[in-house]
Each structure stands twice: as structure tokens, then as C-alpha cells.
Amino acid sequence: MKPETIAIHAGHQNDPATGAVIAPIHLSTTFERQPDGEYPHGFVYSRNANPNRMILEESISAIEGGVAAAAFASGSVAMMTVLQALRPGNHVIAPEDLYYGSRKVLTEIFVPWGLEVSFVDLTNVTAVANAIQPNSKLIIVESPSNPMIKVADIQTLADLAHQNNAKLLCDNTIPSPIGQRPFALGADMIVHATTKYLSGHSDVIGGILVTRAEDDLFERIRMIQTVGGAVPSPFDCWLAHRGLQTLPYRMRAQTNNAMLIAQFLDSHPAIETVLYPGLLSHPQHELAARQMILSGALMSVLVKGDEAAAMQVAANVNLFTRATSFGGTHSLIEHRASIEHPETTTPRNLLRLSIGLENVEDLIADLQQALLF
Ligand SMILES: *Cc1c(COP(=O)(O)O)cnc(C)c1O
User: Fold this and answer.
1) CA–CA separation, 254 vs 259, rounded Å?
2) Does 98 lie in the same domain as 41?
3) Which one from 167, 196, 212, 352 is the annotated catalytic residue?
4) Which of 59, 66, 284, 331 could form a disulfide with 210 if both were Cys (CB 3.0 to 4.6 A apart)?
5) Which residues constitute the domain of residue 155?
6) Could you tell me which of 124, 177, 121 has the C-alpha nearest to residue 148?
């Protein structure tokens, strides 16, 4: 089946009790046991498994081409659970420009807990190879990265991980399953903040871990998920699954908008640089063209001038909303350096744009007037 069909049908069937075409939201925390002690529907207690969570896990696993998935209450706790499934003394290689929250999870929680971590420029394969230690168990890749939109070679990193008995975990939040196929490139696990494109409407926080094999590491991840219970509510699962159904169409439309906006900004005299994988001027454009199916809808721009100039552009927009996050229907604009940690290396004149589903001519007109100052 093709992605558009999987997005709508995977994991879902018409409700056998009522014939409802759309799954009901199962709020019950507990499920009835038969006189013989059996649970004929397979559900016992909602921390362990819930019908709405099962639909979400099966459908996202299917659209990524995995074998199983574990859904969580946030993208951050999905990442934390993979790290918890490792053992103290294990070594992890992570990108130096890893999503800020995931970096904090590593340095503030898991280093004190006993993990060893090296932050490396993943676009430099020699640097990654040099960072590998006998206790290296996991390489984390996030491509394109955020907010510098660097593209790392997933296939090469997967080969490197496997030659050294380690696993490759790909954060596929930014391109989404429609824009990039990490399992086809050799990744072992995929993590998503379903908060972003998968839910797609900026109204639910969630995360998911998808695996290509039900191995010991995934069994530990499942164990931590069900024992600890950092799981999404049935309503959050229902919302995320509702969003998933339109993902292929949203991603294509948002990417088309983004490409036109990137070209407009690239030729604008007030803009120094546009960082977008779809542009020929992107430093890894060739790799991006090979590795990604869609260039995505997230970009960063360096405004000519300093932080004040960038802030002025963000202040001038009307249709774009000044807010963090991405992946929703509304276009967002954000000055990154001022919300990151004090020692951030993000350029002070950088704005990150999340392109939404509005008409692209309206979005370009808004940027056009915002840049005239
Ligand atoms: C948003 C995001 C996360 C964290 O997800 P939350 O749901 O906010 O916890 C992780 N990785 C990437 C790439 C993200 O954009």
C-alpha cells in the first residue's frame, strides 16, 4: 500500500460494536476479565495498552515501514526512553546541533545517570568514526538539523554504527515519514515528536519510537513505556491519528509553499542566506536530493545585519505568528538564539520559518512587506 492509503487505513477498522467508521475514544482505564480469567480483547489496563494508542502505534509503524512502535506523552520522553533502555557506562554519539531539548536530556539527566556522550558534527564522517569507542551503543542522527538545517548522510552513519555493533536512531520529526525514509537508509529506530507534522495542527504534544526489529532493546523500551506510563492519553492518540490521515497531502503542500518562499527569500536583497535543503545553494543539496523525498517545510534565514534586524522582520509580519515549534497548519516565525541556552552558537541574525498551509502568495506578500524597513 502507498503512504496515502496507509495513513488512512493502517491500524484502523470500523468499530465492531457499533459500526462507527471513526474509532471511538476509549477512556476506560480498565478492561473486563472473563469468568475463565482471560482477556478476550487483549486489553487489561490502559497504562499497558489502550485501543487508541494501539491504532496510533500500528499506523505510524506502518507508514515508517517498521515492525512495531511505542507511543509516548512527548517527543522528549520518547527520546529519554531509548536512553533509559541503555545501561550506565554505555556511550552515545549525538550531533553537536541536536535538538536543544534532547541535548539537555542527555547532559542534565543521562550523563549524571552514567551514560557517556560525545557531541560530534555528523556531517563529518571521519569525526564520527574517530568518536566511536568500544562501549558505543548508539548514534543519534537528526537530519535536517535544527535550526542550522544541516543534512547528515544517514546510510553512511548506519553502516558505521553497524560495523561497530551500535545502533542508529534517526529523529525523523523534521522531514516526516513522507519526506524521508530512514529504515530504507539503514536506521534501526526512528523517533518522532508527533507534536509536529504527524499530528499537524499544533494541538497535541506527543512522541513515538518506531523499530525495524522487535529486538532486546525494543523490548526494554516497551517495558519502560508500560511500567513507567509516560504514555499519551486516548484523546491525544485519537488527535494524532486524525492528523496522520492527511499527512501526505499536508507535507506536499507545505513543501511546495516552502520551496517558493525559499526562492523568494534567496533573491531578496535584505536576506544574507537561506538555509533550505531544496535550494541549489544549500551546502549538502546533492546529498539532500538523494536522501530526501521532499525538502520539507522548515527553513532558517540569516537576515542582513544583526539581531535587531532579524527581530524587526519578526516584529513586522502579520500572517506568520511569532512562536516556537513547527509542523502545524499556521506559518510560524521565530528568532532562535534568544530562546536557546546562553552559550548557543546559533547566529544572532537567524530566523526559523515553519511554513504552513496558507496560500503561498499571501505568505510571500507578508514577508515582502516585513522586509521593507
Ligand atoms: C519538538 C522536537 C522534539 C521534542 O518533542 P516534544 O513533543 O516537544 O517533547 C524532539 N526532536 C525534534 C527534532 C523536535 O522538533
Assistant:
1) 9
2) yes
3) 196
4) 66
5) 3-244
6) 121
Tell me the per-residue pLDDT of 148-193, one tens digit each, with 9 for 90 and over.
999 999 999 999 999 999 999 999 999 999 999 999 999 999 999 9
**What pLDDT digit, counting tens, does each position of 323-339 carry?**
999 999 999 999 999 98
Nearest atom (ligand 1) to Cα of 142: 13
Give the Cα separation of 81 and 72 in Å (integer).
Answer: 9
What gap in Å lies between CA 190 and CA 174, rounded to an integer? 12
Query: For ligand 1, atom 1, which residue shows the shortest CA distance?
Result: 193
Same domain, yes or no: 267 and 355: yes
Query: What is the 31 CA–ligand 1 centroid distance (Å)?
Result: 32
63-103 tens-digit pLDDT: 999 999 999 999 999 999 999 999 999 999 999 989 989 99
Q: Same domain, yes or no, for 196 and 326?
A: no
Q: Please give the pLDDT value at position 373.
A: 67
Tens-place pLDDT, residues 123-153:
999 999 999 999 999 999 999 999 999 999 9
Cα(171) to centroid of ligand 1, in Å?
9
Q: Is the pLDDT of residue 343 over 90?
A: no
What's the burial of 277, exposed, middle or buried (CB within 10 Å: 0-12/13-18/19+)?
A: buried
- Tell me how far CA of residue 195 lies from CA of 53, 200, 258, in angstroms: 15, 7, 20
Q: Are 162 and 272 in the same domain? A: no
- Please tell me the distance between residue 48's alpha carbon and the centre of ligand 1 in angstroms: 24
Q: Is 196 a catalytic residue?
A: yes
**Number of domains the chain contains:** 2
Q: Percent of the chain scored above 70 by pLDDT? A: 100
206 and 323 both lie in a single domain? no
